[in-house]
Amino acid sequence: MNYQQALEYIHGTMRFGSQLGLDRIRDLLERLGNPHHEFKSVHVAGTNGKGSVCSMITSVLSEQGYKVGMFISPYLEDFTERIQISGKQIPEEDLARITELVKGKVDEMVKEGKGHPTEFELITAIGFVYFAEQKVDAAVVEVGLGGRFDATNVVNPVLSVITSISFDHMDVLGDTLAKIAFEKAGIIKAGKPVVSYPQHPEAARVLEEVAGKQEAPLTVVVPEQIEPVSSEFDRQVFNYSYGEERLDGLTIHLSGKHQLLNAATALTSVMVLREIGFPISRDAIYRGMEKARWPGRLERLQKDPDIIIDGAHNEAGAQALAAAMKEYFPDRRMILVLGVLKDKEVEKILKALCSLASKVIATKPDNPRALEADQLAEKVKKYCRDVEPVPGIEDAVHLAVGSAGPGDLILVSGSLYLIGKVRKIIKSHE
């Protein structure tokens, strides 16, 4: 099996859909020798900010000299982004080899009449086998969906981290913050520490209750731990405090005020890891935070015209993006290239973003769940008069660039499946 065949096999299992539950992944991993028992893990759940927090924790641990796996989803450009060790993506030949190994075990399961693992379960197994083979010191593992019944929830983490909880995937996780928080809290393990982003009171109560039942020490980040010093689009400097310890002049290259709270969540996670036996120096913290990158979130791809991409795909993400654009570019004419999935909170995303734009180009993300460009354009008209449907993503980008005058700004948002494609298009034209 080569790399392309491996991808075809993995993506071919999409027909089995998304089926939450742990029986299939446990069976599959047991046949593979339970690779997830071979390494320590930090498990990260939440609605928004998971990727940024994973990136910052991984970067700090890597700077300390640890060999750190990072498992994330989805990817922007290349499938191998999903499985990394200390910033290096899994080599294509390793992915192909491990996929063939996993396929053999899946075939055994099917022959025995067991349920076929889902696409995400296969990828989870591949990632865990790779981390075990490479003998990572720790793996930072991002939840795919929810937490309680997510395939990654087979790990027994040394630390659980819960980022910002808001509304998303309500058809699966529930229609209240309390229900969604309960699903996220499913990653909390008995006696193991938990770090939480400062949550809405409804979500916070649930996390406190679950942590209490699990006798899991809960550390909640508070905004007062962060003291902003300076903020530019590509660089934020701030001070951070944890108990008696204070770190002045920390730098991150992640944009938006919301990233300061994500940074506080990552830093608090690092502090707790130190307390439970991971030596981490102040120097590694400073270097790791400054080196952390998270592509596709308020990322500037080029200048003249400025093209900025952000994968805001729910109400909270769109509101954070809108606030950042108002902060950094208050007087710039903006052209918005927008594409959303039809199962998202489309109206709330449009309400947050479209009123900022002088012109909206509605397009269609590269995903079967995408809303058609003309249908999206009709919805956009409520918020922006100048709207044009352009189904092809590359055509939409060319129109945006052609429509941009001196000093104008192009923002691409609405779906990670859209911005990943745009990232490739822009890079190919450099």
Question: How do the helices and strands line up, and which of them pair or pack?
Answer:
Layout: H1 3-12, H2 23-31, E1 40-45, H3 50-63, E2 68-71, E3 83-85, E4 88-89, H4 92-111, H5 119-133, E5 138-142, E6 159-162, H6 170-173, H7 177-184, E7 194-196, H8 201-213, E8 218-220, E9 226-232, E10 235-242, E11 245-252, H9 258-275, H10 282-291, E12 299-302, E13 306-310, H11 315-328, E14 334-338, H12 346-353, E15 359-362, H13 373-380, E16 387-389, H14 393-403, E17 409-413, H15 416-429
Parallel strand pairs: 1-5, 1-6, 2-5, 6-7, 7-8, 13-17, 14-15, 14-17, 15-16
Antiparallel strand pairs: 2-3, 3-4, 9-10, 10-11, 12-13
Question: Could you walk me through the main structural features you see in this protein, from its secondary elements to its overall organization?
Answer:
The protein is an alpha/beta fold and 430 residues long. Helix content is 41%, strand content 18%. It contains 15 helices and 17 strands. It has helices spanning 3-12, 23-31, 50-63, 92-111, 119-133, 170-173, 177-184, 201-213, 258-275, 282-291, 315-328, 346-353, 373-380, 393-403, 416-429; strands at 40-45, 68-71, 83-85, 88-89, 138-142, 159-162, 194-196, 218-220, 226-232, 235-242, 245-252, 299-302, 306-310, 334-338, 359-362, 387-389, 409-413. The chain has an eight-stranded mixed sheet with strand order 4-3-2-5-1-6-7-8, with helices on both faces. It has a six-stranded mixed sheet with strand order 12-13-17-14-15-16. Strands 9-10-11 form a three-stranded antiparallel sheet. Helix 1 (3-12) packs across helix 4 (92-111), helix 4 packs across helix 5 (119-133) and helix 7 (177-184) runs parallel beside helix 8 (201-213). The protein is globular, with a radius of gyration of 21 Å. The two termini are 34 Å apart. The model has no long low-confidence stretch (mean pLDDT 95).
